[in-house]
Structures are given as C-alpha cells and as structure tokens.
Amino acid sequence: MLAYTIRRLLQFIPTIIAITLLVFLLLNVLPGNAALMAGGKQRLSQEAQERLIEKWGLDQPLHVRYWNYVSGLVTGEMGKSYFTREDVGDMLAPRLWPTFKLALSALLIACILGIPLGFYSAMHQGSWVDSLTMVGAVSGVSMPQFWLGLLLMYLFSVKLGVLPTFGYGDGKVINLILPAFTLGVGYMALLARTTRAAVVEVLTQDYVRTARAKGLRPLLVNRKHVFRNTLVLLLTSAGLQFGSLIGETVVVETLFSWPGIGSLLVNSIFYRDIPVTQGCIVVIISAFLLINLIVDLLYAVIDPRIKYS
Amino acid sequence: MLAKKLRRRTNLVAGTLIVVFMVLLAVCAPLLAPYHPIDDADLMVSEEPPGVEHWFGTDSQGRDVLSRVIYGARISLSVGLISQAMNSIIGIILGLTAGYFGRWWDDMVMGLTNIMLSIPSVVFALAIMAVLGPGLINVFIALGLTNWSYTCRITRSQVLFTRDLNYVKAAEAIGLSRARIMFTQILPNIVGPILVIATLGVAGAILMEAALSFLGLGTQPPTPSWGGMLAKAREQLFITPWISIFPGLAIFVTVLGLNLLGDGLRDILDPHSMSKQ
C-alpha cells in the first residue's frame, strides 16, 4: 500500500508537467499577443506595445519563458499580474478557501441526497420513487446550473427575502446555501443515476443471491454485500465526474459573485491577464488531479481485494 | 408486447419528438417568430410582462422575448452540431489511427487523451476563449477542441476489438490500403457507440455555449443566445424576472431531449447496457 501510494504520487509529477506545458502553450502560443490585446478595443501604440512586451518578458523565446514559469512554480512563484503587478500566488491564496468550501458543501449535499435516492430506487425498481428519481436525475443533468441558480435566487431572495441574493457575506452560512445547492444539484442527479445503475448491477451478482439464499437478514445483505460493492463502482465514476463539478464552480461563483478561484479566472480572462488565468487554471486542474489521487487511494480502504503490487 | 416495447423506448420517442421540434423551431424561425429578434426594439413597450401582445414579455430594450428565444434555437443548435462534429472528427481520426497502428502513436494519442480527460472541460474551453477572445466563431472552435477525448477513447477501444476480426483480416489479405480499411471496413461497424457519444456531446456543447455566453465570453449581444439572455436577466432579476424563465427553459428542454435521445439510442445500439437497466 505504501509502495503504491509512493508510485502513484510519482506518477502525479509527469502529469502535472504535461498539463502545465499544455496550458502554457495554449495561453502563449496561439495568436492573440497579450500586449496587443492589453489596450482592449483602442489599440495601443507600437511603442507602448513594445514597452509592455519587454516589461512582461514576452520578448524571450518560448522555451525560456516556459522554463522560467515551471521553475517558478516549483518554488511557489506563479508570476505577477500584468495589470496590478500583484503576485499571482497572493491573489489566489485568499480565494482557495471560499472555492473549497463551496465545492465541499455541494459535494456533501449531492452525496447525502443523491446516493440514498439512487440506492432506494434500485431496491424498489419500478416504484413511484424510482420513476420520480430517474426523471429528476435526467432533468438535473440537463438543466443549466446557472439557470437553476437564477430561479432559486429569484424565489428565495427576491420573492421570499429569506436568503441573500449574492456575495460571500464574510463567510456566513446563510450566504453559502444557494450557491452550494445550485452547484450540488447537477452532481446529485449524476450520483443518483450512477448509484442506481451500480446497485442494479451488484444485485444480479451471484454472491448477493447466495447471501440471500442462506437466509441472511436483508438488511445485512444490503449493508455488507450490496452497499460495499456498489461503493467501488460508484467511486470510479463519481471521481471522474467530479471534474464537472469543479468546472461548474466557475459559473456558479460568477452567478453568485462568490470570491473564489472561478470568478477570478473569469475576471482575468476579461482583462486578458494571462499570468492570473494561467495560475487559476493550474490550481483548478491540480485540485482535480489531487482528488483523483485520493479516490485511487480510497479504493484500497473500500475494496481490500485490490492488490497494489 | 408492443406496448412493453414502446414503454421501453419512451426515452427514444420523447427525445426524438423534442429534438425534431427544436430543429423545426430553428429552421422556421423567421416564419414562427412574431417579431424580429434584434431590429424590432420598441422602447415604448420595454419591460412588459408576458401578455397577449408579447407572450413571453419584452426585455429592457423592448424586444420580444418569444422571438429572441425562437431565434436563439439557431445559435444553440448550430453551436451544438458544429462543435460536436469537430469533436467527432478529431476523436474518430485519432481513435481509429491509435487503435489500428498502435505502438508509439497509440501511446502518444492515449497520453494526450488522458491529459484532456483530467482537465475539466469548462476550464479548457475557458482557456481557449481566453486566447481567442469572445465571439460566436471562437465558441465553435473552443468547444470543437474540448470534448473529443471520449469519442477518441471509445473509438480506439472498439478498433482494438474489431481489428482482429475476420472481415478486417480478409480486407488486409486482398490488399486494401490501410486508410481504406479503417474508414470503409472498421468505422461503419463501430459507428453505434460513437453516435451515442455524439448525441450526448451535442447536449453538452449546448450547455457549455450557454455557460460561456452567460459569463459574457461566448456569443455577444445583440445576437439572441439563450445564455446571453440569461446574463442580462441576472442583472435585471428585480425588474424583469420573466426574462430569466424562458431562455433557461429552452436550454433545459433542448438538452433534455438530446439526453433522452442519447439514452434511447444507447439502449438500441448497445444492448449490453440495456440488460443492466
């Protein structure tokens, strides 16, 4: 297990390098020179452009810039914003917690509601709860989350006036409710669907039939045989789909003016502040990779059959 | 028996009906829309709630929301279809060649695919939009480059399975070129799963275009895009709440239809997953 953990951690490094390279190339090679764009609609003069290019170090060859960027990353340097000259790391740091809090709350809401619903539906196939859950699940996946958020915002803040419209509110829980729920619904629908499919598959397995045939109490069969095996299947797809939840934070944060990484990313794109954009993207992707790593390690805890040789 | 069969095909039937309806709406937009979506701006009737004159009400510039929603179908469906077509082409070519040629090319393609899969697609699309700048054409490009990895992976795995079957061996024996074998022998036989992914991909692309336009990075006003209309609605939630309902409903129904169609197609084309349900 320890050897596996270490090997898995080592695999992490080339992936991160490949991703920083991809993001760097994408943001720096394609047409759209940052200096040219800096002035927005009114173009900067040739001289001003050249000054900016020199100031931002854009006159250096690409591989030098990439090397500078990566060696900076290792020491925690993420470059400076083109416009405020602030350190990108300093800009990102205070926004990590709000995003983490939002994503985690959404995840909790999704798990607490989605998994039991999927489980119940699978155990009672064809019942009205099952039909309703499946209709709800396909609707939840098809709904643009920011639209749901907008409707919730209208209902709970404008009409009923019980919840704040948007903002972080110094971290008050009441400000978290709407964004977390909005973000969680899509994932909840996914989880309900995946759980149901996984349970239905596990229920057809021989060991479940055997357990039942030997007269084990149904509750015990469900807990020891069905649920545990479902978790393995569930974890695989839930872990993969967690990326969509992370991606959605960008939209939900913007909708609710949430001071997280996502809203910073969108703002930096508006200002064409490439170092900030780059920093946000690298942080978001690293978080996603880290979660996948944790999921992989969790397998060992849940499924002792998996051997890590 | 027939009733049972139809019941099992509810997804397919409902999905097809919805998608056909939305396509008709998009194609016949000039005939169906009571007003012009951009030019018929009458400030005298701005911010009117839904009524007889304007079924879905009007926006802050006095434009008919119903007409804008109808025209919006053109944007959403074209973004969905064109960008997914790009994804399918990229994914099929990479997947076919990776699976058929194998070796270092396979390693490289799968490496790239795995990297793409580890980047949340919204974030990747945003990165491309950051470079290209806002605008409809750029949305086509960004979304067309974002979601090919699923198609690539499924194509490759299908090719690996098909490659050693007798009809491929026979085609090789009579000396067909490798390109011809890939595209005329293997591809037609694995088109089912690719089609399912593509249908679901169109739904995903429509959702993504809406999100990008909502963020202000996609389709720019005054072009009537559903996501862009919702961005406006957010600003005016207190004054014109009805604007926030209809464009969102349009996105929801369209994506729902495509998802149902995709699920229905999967049930037919991939009988294995049917037995699971």
List keywords for this structure.
heterodimer; A: about 300 residues; mainly alpha; about 75% helix; globular; B: about 280 residues; MetI-like fold; 14 helices; about 0% strand
In CATH terms, the superfamily of chain B is MetI-like
Q: Biggest interface pair, residues each? A: A-B, 53 and 46 residues
Helix-strand string of chain A = HHHHHHHHHHHH
Radius of gyration of chain B: 22 Å
| CATH fold call of chain B | MetI-like fold
CATH C-level name of chain B: Mainly Alpha
Largest sheet of chain B: none
Q: What structural class should be given to the helix and strand makeup of chain A?
A: mainly alpha
List low-confidence stretches of chain B: none
Indicate how many domains the architecture of chain B comprises.
1
Explain this structure to me?
The complex is a heterodimer of chains A (309) and B (277). Chain A is built from 12 helices and no strands. Chain A has helices at 2-29, 34-38, 46-55, 62-74, 88-123, 128-142, 145-159, 173-203, 206-213, 218-255, 261-270, 274-302. In chain A, helix 5 packs antiparallel against helix 6 (128-142) and helix 9 crosses helix 10. The N and C termini of chain A lie close together (8 Å). Chain B is built from 14 helices and no strands. In chain B, helix 8 packs antiparallel against helix 11 (191-215). Chain B has 277 residues and is an all-alpha fold. Chain B has one domain: MetI-like (MetI-like fold, Orthogonal Bundle), CATH 1.10.3720.10. Helices cover 71% and strands 0% of the residues of chain B. The model of chain B has no long low-confidence stretch (mean pLDDT 84). Chain B is elongated and about 75 Å long. At the A-B interface, helix 1, helix 6, helix 7, helix 8 and helix 10 of A face helix 5, helix 6, helix 11, helix 12 and helix 13 of B.
